[in-house]
TrEMBL record:
Signal peptide: 1-30
Upper classification of the organism: Bacteria, Pseudomonadati, Pseudomonadota, Betaproteobacteria, Burkholderiales
UniProt protein name: Uncharacterized protein
Protein keywords: Signal
Entry superkingdom: Bacteria
Source organism of the structure: Massilia niabensis
Amino acid sequence: MRLANQHLMRVAAVLALAAASASVSTSAFAQSAEYRRGYEDGYAAGLRAGGGDRGDRGRGQGWGRVRVEEAQYGARRGMCDARQAVRREVERNGAVLAGNHLCGDPAYNEEKRLTVVYRCGDDAPLRVVAREHETLRLACRR
């Protein structure tokens, strides 16, 4: 009986420690997400206030930062979300080639199109379309 009580006490202690560490890690994650969101908002506000929201990245004066909001690739029979792939290509070189490498082949043996909706800073969204194998250049001029 004494051995069973010791075993139960150990199990209870382990469970209490596990529960405590889970709540600490959850609150730490929430704090870091909150901190990151606040930092990004403050940084963006500072850039706007200072007139420095150009995101030049070596492209010369007058270029703004492109924010890809939507990117759909495909045809009537099938579409796929190409947003992440388009963002990566635009960040690398300001252009994106419309093709199956973006998110697969959603409509086999059909001509596909890439439709991208993007913004330049706080401006109205722009919509551009390219046929398969064409290149889109996304740019912002101020």
